[in-house]
């Protein structure tokens, strides 16, 4: 029996969490019985010897209202960050398959010594992503064109990668749209797990969260209804295809 994937959520909104799981299953092609879901904002991670991370085929970290660069962090956010750091210690040591989507740039980036700050925010909506020369040859980006549209929405990003990280994708608004550590750890600033329906849901949920002026919500929904980015989901599908068998 192939190992399951662990999908980790940190969203405090039940609606956003449910939609993230819906779109992750729909866009990855994973059946529900191949996924375990952990809501880290509500359920602390136990000691790793009890959690047994080696039982998973890979780890998928979704987006989050939390930011590594936040200056006033709640107890829940601090605990989530500590739990993710413990898990990343193990993942990095074992070069275990990891895909961090949006929030993954901050978590994996900080863990690996990147500079994560507010220099390159992008409001909720679309951006244009271009692969680097290295990215064009990376297996997780197989089948994607050199440039493609993608959904984004973030207050922070990486302004400087550590020397050992591999830069895979960029955009005019955010220089680091995707990077890699070792052979199997990936993080994207854009959202491979997000579809048009999910973007509209998030615009509504996070209209007052500081990603854009709230009076722009309806205009952004109208724009989202005209944009349907299909290429990014290949990142998620490739991740499942490459790591989904027994390793």
TrEMBL record:
<keyword id="KW-0808">Transferase</keyword>
<dbReference type="GO" id="GO:0005829">
    <property type="term" value="C:cytosol"/>
</dbReference>
<dbReference type="InterPro" id="IPR044992">
    <property type="entry name" value="ChyE-like"/>
</dbReference>
<dbReference type="InterPro" id="IPR029062">
    <property type="entry name" value="Class_I_gatase-like"/>
</dbReference>
<dbReference type="Pfam" id="PF00117">
    <property type="entry name" value="GATase"/>
</dbReference>
<dbReference type="InterPro" id="IPR017926">
    <property type="entry name" value="GATASE"/>
</dbReference>
<keyword id="KW-0315">Glutamine amidotransferase</keyword>
<feature type="domain" description="Glutamine amidotransferase">
    <location>
        <begin position="56"/>
        <end position="195"/>
    </location>
</feature>
<dbReference type="GO" id="GO:0016740">
    <property type="term" value="F:transferase activity"/>
</dbReference>
<protein>
    <submittedName>
        <fullName>Glutamine amidotransferase</fullName>
    </submittedName>
</protein>
């Amino acid at each position: 029996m192939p190992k399951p994937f662990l999908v980790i959520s940190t969203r405090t909104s039940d609606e956003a969490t449910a939609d993230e799981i819906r779109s992750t299953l729909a866009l990855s092609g994973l059946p529900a019985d191949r996924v375990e879901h952990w809501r880290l904002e509500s359920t602390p991670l136990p000691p790793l010897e009890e959690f047994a991370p080696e039982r998973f085929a890979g780890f998928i970290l979704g987006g989050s209202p939390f930011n590594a660069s936040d200056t006033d962090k709640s107890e829940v956010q601090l605990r989530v960050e500590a739990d993710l750091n413990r898990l990343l210690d193990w993942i990095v040591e074992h070069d275990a398959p990891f895909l961090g989507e949006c929030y993954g740039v901050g978590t994996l980036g900080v863990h690996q010594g990147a500079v994560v700050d507010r220099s390159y925010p992008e409001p909720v909506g679309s951006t244009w992503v271009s692969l680097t020369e290295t990215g064009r040859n990376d297996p997780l980006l197989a089948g994607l064109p050199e440039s493609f549209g993608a959904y984004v929405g973030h207050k922070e990003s990486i302004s400087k990668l550590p020397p050992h990280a591999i830069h895979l994708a960029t955009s005019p608004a955010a220089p680091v749209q995707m990077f890699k550590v070792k052979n199997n750890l990936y993080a994207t600033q854009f959202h491979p797990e997000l579809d048009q329906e999910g973007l509209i849901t998030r615009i509504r949920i996070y209209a007052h969260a500081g990603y854009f002026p709230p009076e722009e919500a309806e205009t952004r929904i109208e724009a989202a209804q005209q944009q349907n980015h299909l290429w990014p989901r290949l990142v998620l599908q490739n991740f499942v295809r490459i790591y989904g068998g027994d390793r």
